[in-house]
Design brief:
heterodimer, A: about 250 residues, alpha/beta, Rossmann fold, two-stranded antiparallel sheet, 6 helices, B: alpha/beta, 8-stranded mixed sheet, 5-stranded parallel sheet, binds flavin-adenine dinucleotide, binds adenosine monophosphate
Chain lengths: ~250, ~325
């Protein structure tokens, strides 16, 4: 089975966010970048498990600049066989999807996995766009994935519950929590990653349909008002009269 | 030209998130002097669509659409958009919206803002929309450069407004003959609760501070008197104290209710990422240094096992006097 896993490069979840250039650019100074958790813990690890059980090859693909190479190497250290970096600034979801589609379209991947969303721009867009560009089915929010005889069985979250679907390969799946357990790369993996193939591909001319013009930090809350533990009725009164929440 | 709004029915009525989207789309239509047309799959009492601002409703009934399959649905909405000469298409950023809006965007080469939290700012050729980024730690203004534009609205960003009004309802036939989706639905497991966490207005949530699943009775009692949905932190779902669909946060569901009551939850940044859009936050925690208090509007420091039953009683009394 040939599996492609799309990985994005995001600031670690605990990063303190700030902006530069008059609030038009994300300030990357001192920021620790990691593989987007959904891509790494669930999509990549499940891809590796499937390969280990059934044979095949796992390729990771990333659209980004040379600065994200440490992130790509981490993916190789966890166990991907090879990696592709398409050399473009990933600043529009559709353009990213076009880049990946242009690379993947004639490579015969059986399974293309993405994460549910990036924890940076929270788009939840690239996987679905990629499916559309490749004219493939797309199953989002997948919490379980199995493949037998070229048919994928997927459990995924839907409005108000879960659903089990079957779909003949190839298809695009977006991974949610539950699909696998995170793996920590071991020393051997880290050593091996140094020599695994990392193919650099030039970007195609893609359509940039959106751009960010300004950022703003989320408004903090005004100071917390404390109510004494012995008088919860006071909280009820505040919630009703002041906050108008009940 | 028109603004097309994708809507859904649930239990015979138009979904709340869909009505928010219709309100939103009709405001844009008014500003741009366009018509607001809703498109709906299935049947039910559709009168709220007119009251929310749609002047026309395209009703689609096609057996291929019963499972809201992405490939069929995208084609159906594309046909509706074409028939209505839609230049702007609105979705709710719910499960269907997250699947269909980007698919349709790629097909139409339309710029998409997924998870808009405010009305677009339109002046001359410039069209920008605000959305949350970095899991709620910041917001960004997105400019859309394409001729056709798609916006999916984050649920609970606006209260639904219904006014006098009615829409012309027409049956719209779609042609899905050329498409054959290989996706087959084998099983659907709906959560039995009547309250859907994703669009609940009031949420009572609890964490590892509750010590074990046997103590959730008091959390459920509090939720019940409030008419609230229940939620939990991630470790609680991981340890199977509570079902997985209740898990909120970065890796769980992101919610933005009017009121979020967090009990025995420390307030880790990954938890906050899923709840910091809540309008009012109440935190009950025995540790006065718990980080959650920094993000709370109201706090009670103390033992949840004592406070929660008392709070439930106080709310009961309050409700009785209403
Ligand atoms: C990449 C990543 C993603 C993550 N995603 C999520 C996510 O989506 N959602 C999520 O929730 N977490 C997530 N986490 C985990 C998160 O970092 C925290 O570990 C988790 O939220 C802690 O859960 P908790 O507050 O229930 O437990 P704890 O941190 O153990 O806190 C328990 C709290 O209960 C209080 N307490 C104890 N006894 C009582 C009592 N008797 N009365 C009142 N209060 C009491 C304690 O003071 C403490 O504050 C993620 C972590 C990572 C690294
Ligand atoms: N620059 C990128 N390179 C490769 N894959 C990406 C990139 N950006 C996003 N993805 C994939 O698309 C998923 C959804 O991203 P997003 O639509 O940005 O929320 C991610 O979880 C990744 O799997």
């Amino acid at each position: 089975m040939k599996i492609l896993v799309c990985i994005s490069n995001v600031p670690d979840t605990t990063t303190k966010i700030s902006f530069t250039n008059n609030n038009t650019a994300f300030n990357t100074a001192g920021v620790q970048f990691v593989i987007n958790p959904f891509d790494e813990w669930y999509a990549l690890v499940r891809a590796l498990e499937l390969k280990e059980a059934q044979g095949g090859n796992v390729t990771i693909i990333h659209v980004g600049t040379a600065e994200s190479e440490p992130t790509i190497r981490k993916g190789l250290a966890i166990g991907a066989d090879d990696a592709v970096r398409i050399d473009a600034e990933p600043n529009d979801a559709f353009a990213v999807a076009e880049q990946i589609a242009a690379f993947a379209k004639d490579k015969g991947f059986d399974l293309i996995l993405a994460g549910k969303e990036t924890i940076s721009y929270n788009g939840s867009m690239v996987g679905a766009m990629l499916a559309e560009l490749l004219n493939l089915p797309y199953v989002p929010m997948a919490t379980k994935l199995d493949v037998t005889n070229n048919v994928a069985t997927i459990e995924h979250d839907i409005d108000g519950g879960t659903e089990v679907v079957e779909c003949a390969l190839p298809l695009v799946i977006a991974a949610n929590k539950g699909m696998a357990e995170a793996r920590i790369p071991n020393m051997r993996g880290i050593m091996a990653a140094r020599t695994k193939p990392l193919l650099q591909v030039s970007a195609i001319t893609a359509d940039k349909l959106t751009s960010i013009t300004a950022f703003e930090l989320a408004k903090g809350r005004t100071d917390c008002k404390f109510v004494d533990a012995s008088t919860p009725e006071k909280l009820v009164e505040l919630l009703h009269n002041e906050a108008k929440a009940i | 030209m028109s603004v097309l709004i994708y809507t859904e029915v649930s239990k015979g009525k138009v979904k709340k998130a869909s009505l928010e989207a219709v309100n939103y789309g009709s405001r844009i239509a008014t500003q741009l002097n366009m018509k607001a047309t809703a498109v709906i799959i299935g049947d039910g009492d559709l009168s709220d669509l007119g009251k929310a601002g749609a002047s026309k409703v395209l009703k689609i009934n096609n057996e291929k659409l019963v499972n809201l399959d992405g490939q069929y649905l995208t084609a159906a909405i594309e046909q509706a958009a074409k028939a209505e000469d839609a230049s702007i298409i609105i979705f709710s950023n719910d499960f269907t919206g997250k699947e269909i809006a980007p698919r349709l965007a790629a097909r139409l080469k339309a710029g998409l803002v997924a998870g808009a939290v405010d009305n677009p700012v339109i002046s001359g050729d410039s069209f920008t929309v605000k959305k949350n980024v970095f899991s709620g730690k910041a917001v960004a203004m997105y400019a859309l450069h394409s001729e056709k534009k798609i916006i999916s609205l984050l649920p609970n960003s606006f209260a639904v407004e219904l006014k006098e009004g009615s829409a012309e309802i027409v049956d719209f036939a779609v042609n899905l003959d050329g498409i054959n989706s290989p996706v087959k639905v084998k099983e659907v497991k709906k959560v039995s609760s009547d309250l859907n966490l994703a669009d609940a207005e009031l949420v009572v949530s609890a964490g590892r501070g509750m010590k074990g699943p046997e103590n959730w009775g008091m959390i459920e009692d509090l939720a019940k008197v409030l008419g609230a949905a229940t939620a939990c932190s991630r470790p609680v779902a991981d340890m199977d104290w509570r079902p997985h669909h209740e898990h909120v946060g970065q890796t769980g569901l992101a919610i933005r209710p009017d009121l979020y009551i967090a009990i025995g939850i420390s307030g880790a940044i990954q938890h906050l990422a899923g709840v910091n859009g809540s309008k009012v936050m109440v935190v009950i925690n025995s540790d006065k240094e718990a980080p959650f208090f920094k993000s709370a509007d109201y706090g009670i420091v103390g033992d949840a096992f004592e406070i929660v039953p008392k709070l439930t009683e106080a709310i009961k009394k309050f409700k009785a006097n209403q």
